[in-house]
## 1
Amino acid sequence: MALLSLIEKDQATGRVGEIYESMINAMGFIPNAFKVFSPSAHVLDVQFSNLGYFMRHKTLGGKLLAFIRLLVSEQEQCLYCVGMNSGILLQYGVLPEMIAEIKADPSKAPLDGKELAMLLFVLKVVKNSNSIEPADVDNLKTLGWNDTEILEATYHGTTQVGVDKIFNAFKITPDM
């Protein structure tokens, strides 16, 4: 049970109601991952906007982004996000035994070399942002990533840390 009073669909008004309607139209339900932000229409709007942006990203693929969220959430011990992103990766053909192996060794993620380098870079930032050297960024650029993509992938991973902490703190339960 969440520690905050979450707004349910039948209680939602204004911007919260609009976002909920959009989610129902797109997904068929409102995930607890979004209900947790419902006490603040502003925070919910930011999260909803981020979801839309990254779902339609031209170069950061859904599989890469799901691995970023999964592995950051594994580090942060956010069971909700580990479960959700494991489910998303199943849709990409990543089997449960593969997910367990990748959690132990992220370099085994089934991504091409360019995406794998980005994943490992973001995980390095999340683990110890002070450990990043110019060569780390130069390596990504050599592989064809640009500054925007590097920043946005890093933003996605570091934002996940904050989301995981919110979900853990307020005891968000898995969607049924």
Note: The radius of gyration is 17 Å.
## 2
Amino acid sequence: MKQLTVRRISGDILFATQVAAVFQEQGIETHQVDVLNWEAYDYAPLVQFQIAHDNRHIFLHWTVDESFVNAVEVHDNGRVWEDSCVEFFLSPDGDDTYYNLECNCIGTALLGGGRVGTERPHLSLSKMPQIRRWSSLGYQPFDPDEVLGSWQLSLIIPVECFFLHHLTSLSGCEMRANFYKCGDLLPVPHFLSWSPIDTPSPSFHQPQFFGKILFE
């Protein structure tokens, strides 16, 4: 099982625009999303992420370099996975109750939660703005021909957004998670993961294949 340690940062990060600089200053480790799980989808863009926390928030910074970049969805809890999209799935208790946080390259996000094989409600639209975001591409949809293949995305996720749990702190917690890159409707669809998945066809909703993450 893959494993990583989520460092606790010092100081405050109030805005998503600060995440990348603080991570650089504090030497937060970079991880690769590079596992090609399905032979039919062998395109592998360069995808990296960094993750840290401050006990009450999870901070994520993504760096992506891909051949095609597209962003159509502008409504939270919409079909962001069809665009150039990165995803963070988290099981706080290490079981099959988990959250899927998906975000396209212009910062449109989806957050769902629940158990495997059941209805998975979304975080209410009124609370989605609690997830603070910064995109290097801005926040408006664009023509794919207008954008080169590199982009960055930063997220600040309060623990309150994990709406099926009553998390009050992260320090000392052991959870399970996976990190993904996809683009279902891009010219070259792809489905990469951090922790390997063993299923016949692409499916990210597989908590049995999540890796372990330890919060300092």
Note: The CA atoms of residues 132 and 156 lie 5 Å apart.
## 3
Amino acid sequence: MLEVDALVTAYGQSQVLFGVSFGVRQGEAVTLLGRNGMGKTTTVRSLMGMVRPRGGTIVLEGRPLHGLPSYRVAQAGLGLVPEGRQVFPNLTVRENLVATAARRAGPAEPWTLARVFALFPQLAERRAHFGSQLSGGEQQMLAIGRALMTNPRMLILDEATEGLAPLVRTEIYRAIEGLKASGLAILIIDKDLRALTRIADRHYVLEKGRVVWSGVSAELAANRELQHRYLGV
């Protein structure tokens, strides 16, 4: 589904990514892990065309994405749930969702308002409320629903549970598990290692802009030394 090879990204003279490589298969959930400042968000920004890589390749289902502007990346099928939610505060829940709706070469069963409301019933109840009137958890659900309304081939979740109450995090992870079960490829950046090793198939650990470890959930969960050295848990 997604193949990233030898990705190099810099901001001016400051290089952040040093040859990052990873892949996500169809129907698979994969994580990018690491402490703050190790290059996870820069990797996401590079994937989405928000910053132009200086080297390496990004290929989605055989289509090169490196160097494309963000709107072309979105049209190709990458859907982003950004860090900080970034919902439109002066639009209603319904308007936030309709604003991004697109029927591209996405799933056989397209995402619609009704389907998003079935995934997150709280949004159905708040459909006429403005984005600024929602709780943090509701805004996060809206951000996920908004990305799904683009009918992506693959979904990227950047810190989707950050700052949320435990019960809300559980609800978000329940939704992610359902999306994975439906066959959607998902790339997750988060810090809840216990939840991630339950949900995700494989993991990549970043340290100072390089992939220093990759493996499956059972290996990560059993490797306490790795967790302490690179993840601070």
Note: The beta strands are 2-11, 14-24, 29-33, 55-60, 63-64, 78-81, 154-158, 185-189, 202-207, 210-216.
## 4
Amino acid sequence: METHHYSMLALLQSHATTHNDQLTHLLPVRDITYRRLWSRIERGSARLQGEWDVRPGDLVAYVGSGHPDAIVLYFSLLRIGASLLPLEALPADAVQRTLDAHRPVLAVHDDGVLFDAVPARRLEDLLALWSHHDPVVVDDDMTRRALWLPDGAGQWQASSLFELCAALPPAPRSGFVNGRIFSADILCDVVLPSLRDAQLMRFAATEAVERTKS
């Protein structure tokens, strides 16, 4: 399947109908189907814009440990024309330095940390309740560089969804995400091809929570 010839956002919206009851991943308290995934992306877009005041061109940071809802955050930001800076599994001082350097308008986190001079929201609050706002969705431009990824030399480079999808493998190389979501290998070898093919993914971050409950 040649994902780079069409929009991943449009594909996920289509999956909500054509693969509606297939599982995307599991959370400790609910199963996330492709229909529910798209519903959560819509809810995230509405809350980010209507309640958290994120605007086109804004940069939002994710600070956490590979929670699958960070994927919802990314696609929600794409829909409203904003960008994501994922800061996963970094020590607190490195997080703060990166926030100081890039100055996002908001930091969304899943581990309860506090940040200096950056407004913060919990990732779970992005999707906790339905948002009644009607977001203004931007034109779907896969070439817009809306994801900042580390380049291996201590620098951050903005990538477009077009670039990320252009060389995906013909099938996901694994169905398991252990640790960071937004590393180039996990994102392009596991996450994006799994979403493309409507496959199930397993996330270490949420499976660890499930084990503590049993």
Note: The longest strand covers residues 59-64.
